[in-house]
Amino acid sequence: MLRILFVCHGNTCRSVMAEAIARDRFKEDAEVHSAGLSPQDAEDSDMAIDTLQKYFDIDASGHVPKGIDSVKLDAFDYVIAMAPGIARQIPDLPEGKLITWMIGDPWGDDSETYLECANAIKDEVSKLAEIIK
Known about the structure:
Layout: E1 2-8, H1 14-26, E2 30-36, H2 46-56, E3 78-81, H3 84-87, E4 98-100, H4 111-131
Parallel strand pairs: 1-2, 1-3, 3-4
């Protein structure tokens, strides 16, 4: 089974939404996780979780932010950094294993910005599905 890890800064916005959207998209074809470089408090995920529920009918209410140091990077087929600045902070990975997206961080912004972020992530997950077939 394909294993994918999404990484952002706090594991409360982008990577949470990417994990949930990818899990919904790939179903049993992939094992999907997320982590952050510096995980924040669980309640900091509320806007992302609300966006997923309201606009995508995806329940991510059980999300608990975790750090990248709590996962074994080599256990994943792909590690997806949500932005170049995140990618630069991920330890070296074999060529082709690290994928870098350009998803802006909605942290501290309004619900419209979270929705725009989630839609951008959904587009990237669709592209990813074509690449990893």
